[in-house]
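Researcher: Quick sanity check before group meeting.
Model: Go ahead. Protein one:
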Amino acid sequence: MRRIHVIGIGAGDPDYVTAQAVRALNDTEVFFAMDKGEAKSDLVGLRREICSRFVTRPGFRFVELPDPKRAADGDYNQAVSQWHTARARLWAEAIETELGPDGVGAFLAWGDPSLYDSTLRILEQVAQHIEFSFDVIPGITAVQALTARHRITLNDVGEPVLITTGRQLRSSGLAGSAVVMLDGECSFLGCPPQTRIWWGAYLGTPDEILVAGTVGDVGRRIADLRAEARERHGWIMDIYLLRA
């Protein structure tokens, strides 16, 4: 039976790759990667760099798949569902075409495959079309990288912390501590000015940017830095921790 590894490769620094991930990398014949266009070619390049650094077995291959476009308007959940379905069809075809009956492939997930990553959901759909087994190798998350780089704890003493999105922050507001991901709207600007924020972009890469303070003091600076960095690179991955 075909086997697939879903390997968490950390938030950008190759040193985040675990020993377990290295073993899975060296068990892989074909690495599947989504090609998101020239602007995000760095993301595929970093995956190739990780393989070049850690894979010692000869003959492994990279297969780049054109990422289907996700609808930018209309119902958000419906758009994501349709995007996942389109990806699943593409992945099923690629796995059947590129892997032999006993072949081993892998998808490399930024951070950890369990946290705001679509790989596992899409593979569940792929399994409806072809037969294969898969395992999951956990990775260092952007949440861990953010708190480590700012040298802070994730939660206050005895208090919970919420992991959420910019969309949810705008609709539900902030209570206590929250890690915010997938926020292209700088939703923190809607928080009270005394709200503390620890922000990071391109964590673990040479382009890393870190800012901390209160929303009133540094919020506009973060928004400006984010816009400038996105314009310069053509893409951005950022995350922040808020504390009311």
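Researcher: Fine. The other one?
Model: Protein two, sequence then structure:
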Amino acid sequence: MGMYLARSMWAFSYAAASFVTLVLTWVAITGAATRNRKINIALCILSNQLSELPLTVMCLDACFYTWLNITGTFQESLLVRFFYYTNIITAIGLLYLFKRSLDVQEPSQQFLHQFSKESKDWAELPGMASPRFWQQLLNPFHWPRDCTVHHNIPYWTQQEQLDAQQNDGWESVADMTLDIYRPNTVQGGDERPVLFYLHGGGWTSGSKQLVGPLLTEMIFYEWIVVSVNYRLNSKRGYPAQIIDSKRALRWVKEDIRAFGGNPANIVVAGDSEGGHIAALMALTANQADYQPGFESVDTSVQGCLGLSPVLDLLDLENYSNHDARTRFIKEVAKRDGSSQSAETCTAPIHYLEVPGGHHCFHLISSPRSWYCAIAAGQWLNHYFDGVPQRLKDNQRKREVHEVVEWDWDV
């Protein structure tokens, strides 16, 4: 009796897992979305992971199938045999997802070739014959190595701390911190470029600990990476997130040299909501409304990199969350009514559309995310690395304003 119950449990578990995988594979391929925000979030998170890790999912299914054979469940259960055949269809879909991930190599290489006349430093993106390709593919959950991490550095002033504590509580004050990733080969005073990174999370969630392949890639290039937290539940609402991010930028400009960074060579970057904030930081440099109490501080940056950034809340036709604008106004900005105004950018823009990329795909280590990270890293190096030497030669401040946007196309 006990053996029968165990086999039944394994059979139903296999059936449930197979059905969910089939549905998520379909969602990952088609990019299907609903009008329910919570369902969309769940589908996005799950199908995103499956889309970036199709071979891992196939290996897990093979292990499950092997176990069912060992226990005799496959031979005795019609349910298991039925879903075994449906998994063949799922496997075809997973292989298609893997191929589509590999297909990102070509547009990424073409993106880099735009600058080939200016520089001969571009490296060919690693293909399936490269050891690096398989090292990254087999390590989906990576963490930056060969660097020293300085955790939870507060960037508030004493008065800002008191104001935040009185208005939003101590937990919000704890959110006003940043982490610094310093490559072990970099010492204080080395004047290395700084990547100032803002996490995503729909303006109400997320963490500076969510680091993806891009941050690892820039640490490899000996950039200083600053990952920033900001208040997510301020009672005053938006733009508290932008103001906090500018406070963090103020701290970086004052103190990053001690960690080997160059305060005159900072590129802001972010994903999703973080990309939105990064873009607005670049577009509102030195605007007093967004830096109360430190209006005289220079908050200009040299460049901006957006990864799946939220840049248009007015056009709902191309946004999976159909009530995004209303939610932003009511829940994030905590205001009534709406605004039709928008910041505009007059700086050069470089754009790479990523085939098959789901929202925030770049947080998972996969061929697609690594191709994009390598391309973005070389783009950043091309425009912003080596600035200290040029500053010394030219004896003038470098004024470069570049924006690069990454988008997805399902």
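Researcher: One line on it for the slide.
Model: The longest helix spans residues 2-30.
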